[in-house]
Amino acid sequence: MSQRGKWRGGNAWYTLAVLTLVYACQFMDRQIMAILLEPIRREFHLTDTQLGLLTGFAFSISFALAGIPLGILADRVNRKKLVATLLLVWSACTALCGLASSYPMLLISRVTVGAAESGGAPTSMAMLGDAFPARRRSLAASVFQSGGAIGGAVAFVLGGFIAEAYGWRAAFFLAFLPGLIVAFLLFATVREPPRGAMSEQATGPDKSSFGRTFVDGLVFIRGQPALIHVICGMTISAVGLSAFASWVASFYVRTYDVSLSLVGTIVGATGIFGALSHIATSYFADWLGTKNRRWPLQLSALCSASVLPIGLMMANQPTLAGAITFAVMLAVLSGVYIPIAYAGVMNLTPPNRRAQTLSIGIVLMNMIGYGFGPLVTGVLSDAFGGALSLALGALSTYGIWSAAHFLLAARAMKSGPVA
Following CA atoms 389, 391, 392, 398 in sequence, which dihedral angle do they give, to the nearest 10 degrees? Predict the structure, then answer.
């Protein structure tokens, strides 16, 4: 029997608001490293390849190892309590980065942050999948994703100013207090939505073994071509998005010789445009879905393909103003196709497999996308003599590849409106 009557809209929107704050804390802790790369490079005498390893692969490998077990765990325990605990852990580990006295210590601290963060987004979105009906999940996903842009903006703006005034270590100490406050807010005030509350059939937690659950989850995904292509499109997109997010601050500093505080303000403001596009276009995407469930993914494909020319233009602008203009356009485009893709995963997955399926997708995004995007950019930059503009321009080609997967996903879906 459906549990829709047991979960009211006000609960859903409040849950979304708090989980968006959780995601903002997650991205603040993740992105604060990007604004601090230049002073860290100077203190520890690092190459761009080492910086790419620090911002990418070291973070993503622990994310990958911990992500799927945490996703399976989330399908069988109280998800609210799990997210609150993970938030406390990754916030504390981010603060520990400020105590690092060497590159290996900093690397280890980032590994622990990645492991804890791996369970945050899939568990949160699984909760949202049970709080919102399918026809509202693009909107819910877009609001949730806007938290990433907000957290990134805070990281860049405050991180830049604090690093200039008090040093890069003080910027890491900034991270713990917001995480502590939001974790308490989540634990004390949010109600856990019943699994299957927005499905026709109620579903309880998975009671089978971890190994059996993992195998069954892979078998389920293998039989869903549309789901496979959505996850592939998200993963390829993450390669380029993570490259730009990790290196754009250094790109501005090296190419246009601007201060960290100014760069932080620029990148933070750019992220806000992305957050606004998340929300503004989600209404349109949800409306498209009520006409034909294929159309939102086709819109994702169009926006993703547009990344290549705009990314090339951004990386080759002679003026700072020109680069900022095209960077804003990139932020707006990513604000369109990523929330739609997340909503696609939720709509294609039953409630009792949602956290695990989301965790598999997010693990792939982090292991391949966030793992190799910043690292490959650093390797290319070293090969090009430190020319980040050439490296970022080369990474813009991801847009065509991910667009192809979004089109194939739409083609594999049944035509007709979502529920």
Answer: 150
Tell me: the pLDDT tens digits for 100-118?
Answer: 999 999 999 988 998 899 8
Least confident of 129-143, 231-245, 301-315: 129-143
CA 232 from chain centre, in angstroms, equals 15
Q: Which residues contact 352 (CB under 8 A, 6 or more apart)?
A: 75, 195, 196, 203, 204, 205, 206
Q: What is the pLDDT of residues 193-209, one digit of tens each?
A: 887 666 544 455 555 55
Question: Domain 4-193+216-412: which CATH class?
Answer: mainly alpha
pTM over 0.90: no
Phi, psi of 203 (to 5 degrees): -130, 135
Nearest to 32 by CA among 60, 16, 63, 54: 54
| Residue 384 amino acid letter | F
Tokens for 204, please give them.
């309880």
Domain boundaries, the chain: 4-193+216-412
Phi-psi region of 230 (alpha: psi -120 to 50; beta: other; left: phi over 0): alpha
CA 40 to CA 28: how far, in whole Å?
Answer: 18
Contacts of 21 (CB under 8 A, 6+ apart): 147, 182, 185
Distance CA 313, CA 211 (A): 47
| Both structure tokens of 108 | 């280890």
Answer whether residue 418 shows pLDDT above 80: no
Residue 396 contacts residue 159 (beta carbons within 8 Å): no
Cα–Cα distance measured from residue 247 to residue 288, given in angstroms and rounded to the nearest whole number:
34
149 residue type, one letter = A
Q: How far apart are CA 417 and CA 215, in angstroms?
A: 31
